[in-house]
Design a protein that fits this description.
heterodimer; A: 263 residues; mainly alpha; 8 helices; 83% helix; B: 345 residues; alpha/beta; Rossmann fold; four-stranded antiparallel beta sheet; Permease_MalE (chain A); transmembrane helix (chain A)
């Protein structure tokens, strides 16, 4: 007889989960370069994620650009710096709002579907069947999905930035009687190209997080169909938490590293 | 010829619950083995541990020198291509038709042309009697059909080791009998090592060359079928008779009071059912190559076996000995290819 197994401390649970999440992330990165690449699966997933996110993203980004423009416009008006409304609201949209909107939508619409799909495959033993055939589910199913969410996030981020900026412009110029010239000139005075890069980089990383978390929860549902439902729920919540945390870190780093143009 | 599977000291537990411990056995190459056991004794867990889907706490599973329990991931994935596993409910891909399901391993692991894939898939579909249903989705067919489709998919890469999880569950007695015959025929055709996990007594008594039984977190016994089928051990005898009286209860182990009462009633020592003969392959298939290997192996083991089993083996091989020489000659000439023979049956 062996020694009785130690009861693991309840504090270790979350740590273990975190560790396994990172393991999956590392495995996805490694498997992404392993041949054969599942091109068909990638296209299908890309199309699926894009089709469920494009319209909501565009519809959300118009009012989001508008509220930022209105809020910033109202503030700058009180401060007497109304001519800088354009720069401020565009930077807020491109750097913060756009990657977050994209990530939330991808996680909410695409990630939840990915999680539910993988979870139901898991409980139907389809993933076990894949492994028995000597096919890694991570390479066959997870990698195409994660790459799809990343690519959709990057492309969608461009769309949301444009639509959000146009919405902000429209509301500032039409509703708040801002002048188009001031809007554009403050924009070019404050904004710079790295702002766009960091925005796309954020979208890329957020897409990766959304994909990996959805896959992780989908691959490890707890007990039956109810477990899959719970897993979907958790995947969205966990993704949201991670996104805002990572966003804070990235924003902090960016502001430290890249010198502001206006200063 | 199939590959030998060596299991050494396998122990598995989920959390504090121990499933079984220190299971050691050898599945002889090319022979059919059955693992019996009451429901919930971890038979499926054992099967999944053999193929490396579940990691045991201790012990090794050696296949061609690769340890499926603790070897390198890359080797395990390679070795799995030698396996065919039939899951309890088929584990078909829900989004694909039966044809695509069965074709899946071929498309993933071989560079065969689509026409050839089609030929092989149709051949396997015919073996399991699913011709005509290949366009259906797994959700549209019965559980028994899903099982057979799962078997077809497990067979499509000509596996060296075939693992079958509860082939009888959800099948009627006739289909179960036909499936038993199919399993023996498959063994005659492919000469693959087979392990069937079941608690169906008809399959257990007629199909295997070797039998084992899992009970109360350990392997009760594993050896030639005659050993288990003539065993005096109360657990085995109760199970093979399907009686209520004996050590096995609804919650695996009965309490001692019930046992004492049963002993007083004198039920515990009812005789074992007579030994049923093992199934032979369908006519036209030729003898199983494993049968001759097994005969030699078992005869060398004879001295170590209990007397009852020894008598049964002597009876079986003694009686068929004159006919064996024909069979031995037949094993030297390879049997004709499979599809042409299938059409006649």
């Amino acid at each position: 007889m062996s020694a009785p197994p130690r009861t693991p401390s309840p504090l270790l649970g979350p740590l273990r989960q975190t560790g396994r999440l990172f393991t999956l992330a590392a495995e996805v990165c490694r498997a992404a370069f392993r041949r054969p690449f599942q091109f068909r699966e990638f296209i299908e997933q890309f199309w699926f994620v894009a089709s469920v996110t494009i319209l909501p993203a565009a519809l959300v980004s118009i009012p989001f650009g508008a509220v930022i423009a209105l809020q910033v416009g109202s503030l700058t008006q009180q401060l007497g710096a109304q001519s800088f409304t354009g720069g401020a609201s565009v930077l807020a949209v491109i750097q913060q709002a756009s990657p977050l909107i994209v990530a939330l939508l991808i996680s909410g619409a695409g990630g939840s579907a990915i999680c539910a799909d993988l979870g139901s495959r898991k409980i139907r033993e389809e993933l076990d069947a894949l492994e028995v055939m000597g096919i890694s589910p991570v390479q066959r199913l997870v990698v195409p999905r994660v790459l799809a969410t990343m690519l959709v996030a990057v492309l969608l981020n461009g769309l949301v930035s444009v639509v959000g900026t146009l919405g902000g412009y429209f509301f500032n110029v039409i509703m708040q009687d801002g002048t188009p010239g001031a809007y554009l000139s403050s924009f070019s005075a404050l904004a710079q190209l790295p702002d766009l890069w960091i925005s796309e980089l954020k979208a890329l990383i957020f897409g990766f997080i959304a994909g990996v978390v959805a896959a992780y929860r989908g691959l490890n549902p707890r007990g039956g169909p109810k477990g899959v439902g719970d897993a979907v729920n958790q995947s969205v919540v966990i993704t949201f938490l991670l996104l805002f945390f990572v966003n804070t870190v990235m924003t902090g780093l960016y502001l430290q590293i890249v010198p502001p143009k206006g200063g | 010829m199939g590959i030998e599977v060596v299991v050494e000291g396998l122990t598995k537990s989920f959390g504090k619950q121990e499933i079984w411990q220190d299971v050691s056995l050898t599945l002889p190459a090319g022979e059919v083995s059955v693992m019996l056991g009451p429901s919930g004794t971890g038979k499926t867990v054992f099967l999944k541990s053999l193929i490396g889907l579940l990691k045991p706490d201790r012990g090794r599973v050696l296949i061609d020198g690769v340890d499926m329990a603790g070897g390198a991931e890359r080797d395990i994935y390679e070795t799995r291509k030698l396996f065919g596993l039939m899951f309890q409910d088929g584990a078909l891909f829900g989004s694909m038709t039966l044809f695509d399901n069965v074709a899946f391993p071929l498309r993933e692991h071989t560079r065969k042309k689509e026409s050839e894939i089609r030929r092989i898939v149709m051949e396997r579909m015919e073996v399991v009697g699913l011709l005509g249903a290949e366009g259906k989705l797994p959700g549209e067919i019965s559980g028994g059909m899903r099982k057979r489709a799962g078997l077809a998919r497990a067979l499509v890469l000509d596996p060296q080791i075939i693992l079958i999880d509860e082939p009888d569950s959800g099948l009627d007695p006739v289909r179960t009998a036909l499936l038993s015959q199919l399993l023996i025929d498959l063994n005659a055709e492919f000469d693959a090592t087979m392990l069937i996990v079941t608690h169906n007594l008809d399959i257990a008594s007629t199909v295997p060359d070797n039998m084992g039984m899992l009970y109360l977190r350990r392997l009760v016994t594993f050896g030639p079928r005659e050993v288990l089928l003539t065993s005096e051990e109360p657990v085995v005898a109760q199970f093979l008779n399907g009686r209520r009286e004996g050590p096995i209860g609804m919650t695996e182990e009965k309490d001692s009071a019930t046992l004492a009462r049963e002993a007083a009633d004198g039920f515990a020592s009812a005789p074992l059912p007579p030994l049923a003969p093992q199934l032979e392959p369908s006519p036209g298939l030729g003898p199983r190559r494993a049968a001759e290997r097994r005969r030699r192996r078992v005869l060398t083991l004879l001295d170590q076996l209990p007397p009852a089993a020894r008598a049964e083996i002597r009876k079986a091989y003694g009686a068929t000995a004159p006919g064996r020489s024909d069979a031995e000659q037949a094993t030297l000439t390879p049997p004709p290819p499979l599809p042409t023979r299938r059409s006649g049956t």
